[in-house]
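User: Please predict the structure of the protein below. I'd like the answer in structure-token form so I can feed it into my own downstream comparison script.

Assistant: Understood. Taking the following sequence of 116 residues as input:
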Amino acid sequence: QVQVVESGGGLVQPGGSLRLSCAASIRVFGLYTMGWYRQVIGKQRELVARITGGGRTNYADSVKGRFSISRENAKNTVYLQMNSLKPEDTAVYYCNLEQSILDIFWGQGTQVTVSS
């Protein structure tokens, strides 16, 4: 089973920054699309950012210009740099790895709280 583990969440003031990390235990990490999603209790999980093995990225409109997804394949790690954070960014952030259409692996989530 593929393991996906997020880290880097925490409490930050509005306007501040955080960088989330996600490490995956899989061979040839660079082949796979990775994504960041977030979820508030009682709401559907939503896409935040996604990056393909070829480096193509896409972002939710709400985070464009503020968040950036990147990957460091030598470390089997994907990052989410979050700048200019807003209270509405508060959520549990989840990382996933798309091995195939049928095999998508999720991490346990990391809490991000944006508050004064």
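That's the full token string. The chain is about 0% helix and 50% strand.
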